[in-house]
Amino acid sequence: MLDFILLYLDPGTGSLIVQAIIAGFLALAFYFKMAKNAVTDWVLGLFGKKKITEEELTNDETTQ
Amino acid sequence: MKPLNSSFRDPSGFIFQRDNQIFRVVNHSYQANYDLLMSKLYPALTKAGLLIPHTEVGFDVTKNINQYKLLQAEKIPFISYPYEWSFSQYQDAALTTLAIQRKALEHGMTLKDASAYNIQFHRGKPIFIDTLSFEKYEEGSPWVAYGQFCRHFLAPLALMSYHDPRMGAMMRDYIDGIPLDLTSGLLPFKSRFRVPLFLHIHLHASSQKRHANSENEAAKNTRKISRAAMMGLIDSLENGIKKLRLKTNKTEWGKYYEETILSDDYLAKKQMLVSDLLENINAKLVWDVGANDGTFSRLAAQRAYTIAFDIDHLAVEYNYLKIKEKKEKNIIPLLLDLTNPSPAIGWNNEERDSVFKREKPDLVLALALVHHLAISNNVPLNKLADFFAQLTSQLIIEFVPKSDPRVRTLLATREDIFPDYTEEGFEAAFSKYFTIKNKQKIEETDRILYLMQT
C-alpha cells in the first residue's frame, strides 16, 4: 500500500481540520494561562509590584 | 518596471525596484485590508520594530489601473534566506512571526502568510517584510497560515534541534517548507512526548494524510476555532519553539573556539593590519567570506554594513549570539558554503536569487580562506582570482603559504598537486584582474595580507 501523501494532493485541508480537532485543548490551555496570570498579577499586586504588560512581554521575547 | 520575482504570487499587490529603492504596489482588491492594517496594527508593529516601515508615495508611476496605493518600503541592505540562518536566527525568526500574529489578532487581523521568506535580518534582529500578508480576522475561522508556519518554521527547527543543525539546509530543497509527513518520519519517537511537537507535527501530518482526498468543503463545515483556541494555538507553537535547543552547550563553544582559532598574538597583529587597510577604503556593503565568529567582520562593521559568511553552523550561531548580546546592528551572520553557494530556487529558478545575484559587496574580506579553497577543494588560483574579480572591486585577502602549519596539515593526507601555490603564483594569478595596492607580512608567520583593487 502506498503510505505517503501524493504530492499533487493539497495538504491544506488536513491543516484546517487538525486545528478544529485540537481547538478544545488549546482553548483550555489558554484559559488556564490567563487564570494563572491573573493570580500572579494579584499576588504581585499585594506586594505593590508593577504588572508586566503584554507589550513588554512581546518586546522582551523578540529582543532578548 | 518589472515586479520582483519574489512577489508574483500575491494578488494583493507586488514589489518592484527602481533607482535602488523598493516600491510596493497595493491593489484595489486589498484596499479594505490595507486601511484596516494602517489604522492600528501598522503603528503598533512598526513601533515594536516587528514590521518594515514604509511611506505612501503620492504619485502613480506604474499607470496600473488596479493600483490603490504606492508605497516606498525601507530597504533591507542584504536579503537572506532561511537555509542561510543558524539555529538561533531561525528560532528568533519563528518567534517574531508568532509575536506578529498575536499582535495582529489583538487588532482584529491575522497573518494569511507565515512564510519564512517574509522574515529578514536587519539591524541585528529579525523583521517582517511583507506588508500585504495581513487580512481581517473573522472570529471562529482557523489560521489559514498554520500549515505553512509548521512547514517553514517548526519542522526545520525541530529537525535541527533533535538531529543536527545542518538539517536547516533541507529548506533549499523544499521552498514551501519541509513537508510534515517527512518531518514526522525523521524525528525520533521521543519527540511525540512533547505536546507541541505531537500536535503540530505528528498529529498534523496524520491529519494531512487522512484528509488529502477530502474536498475543502469538509474543512469549512468543521467546528469553529474560538479566539481562545487561536490564542492557545499561538501559545502552544511558541512554547514548542522556545523549548527547542541545539545539542551543544556553552562549554563546548569555548572548546570549539580554542581549537579553531590561532594564537591571540597572531589575531591581534592581523587585526591591526586589517584595521589599517580598512582606513583608506570606501565601502557601503562588505562581505566577510570565511568570517568564523566575526572577529574581522566587526572591524569592517565600524565602517560599513557587513555580512559575515561562514560554512560552519556553530561559527554562525556563535556570531549571532554575540550580535544579540551586544546589540550590534551592522553585522548579519549567514551560512554559506563557497564551494556550493546558495543557488537560485523556486519557480523558473528565479523566485529566490542565488547569493551572487543579490546585493554585491564593495569590499570582500577573504582571510585565512584561500588555502581551504585552493588546497582542500582543488580550485586553481586563476579560478579563484576570476571569482573574486566578478564579485568585487576591492579585496583584502590573506595568502597562507605551504610552509604554514595549517597548510602542512591539509597537505599531510594528500598528494601535493599544487606547484603554483606560492607567493609568486598567487600574485601572478590575481594580478591578471587586480592591482596590488598594499602587501603586508603578518609578523612571526609566513602569511601575507594583500589589499587589491580592480
Describe the protein.
The complex is a heterodimer of chains A (64) and B (454). In chain A, 70% of the residues lie in helices and 0% in strands. Chain A is mainly α. Chain A has a domain at 33-64. The model of chain A is unreliable at 1-5 and 58-64 (pLDDT under 50). With 454 residues, chain B is an alpha/beta fold. Chain B has three domains: 5-73; 82-243; 250-453, Vaccinia Virus protein VP39 (Rossmann fold), CATH 3.40.50.150. In chain B, 40% of the residues lie in helices and 17% in strands. Chain B has helices at residues 31-47, 87-106, 146-162, 180-186, 195-210, 216-220, 227-243, 250-260, 264-279, 295-301, 313-326, 370-376, 381-391, 405-412, 423-431; strands at residues 13-18, 21-27, 54-57, 67-73, 109-111, 119-122, 125-128, 134-136, 285-289, 305-310, 331-335, 363-366, 394-399, 435-441, 448-453. In chain B, helix 3 (146-162) runs parallel beside helix 4 and helix 3 (146-162) packs across helix 5. The mean pLDDT of chain B is 91. The A-B interface holds A 4-6, 9-31, 33, 54-55, 58-59, 61-64 and B 48-50, 92, 95-96, 99, 102-103, 106, 125-126, 142-144, 146-147, 150, 179-181, 199, 203-204, 207-216, 218-219, 222-226, 228-233, 235-236, 324.
Q: Which residue ranges of chain B are poorly predicted, with pLDDT under 50 across at least 5 consecutive positions? A: none
In percent, how much strand structure appears in the residues of chain B? 15-25%
Overall spatial form of chain A: rod-shaped
- Helices and strands of chain B, in order, run as EEHEEHEEEEHHHHHHHEHEHEEHHEHHEE
Rg value of chain B: 24 Å
Low-confidence segments of chain A: 1-5, 58-64
Rough outline of chain B: globular
Mean pLDDT of chain B: 91
Q: What fraction strand of chain A?
A: under 5%
Instruction: Count structural domains of chain B.
Output: 3
Which structural class is indicated by helix and strand composition of chain A? Answer: mainly alpha
Rg of Cα set of chain A: 20 Å
Terminal CA distance of chain A:
49 Å
Main beta sheet strand tally, sense and closure of chain B: 7 strands, mixed
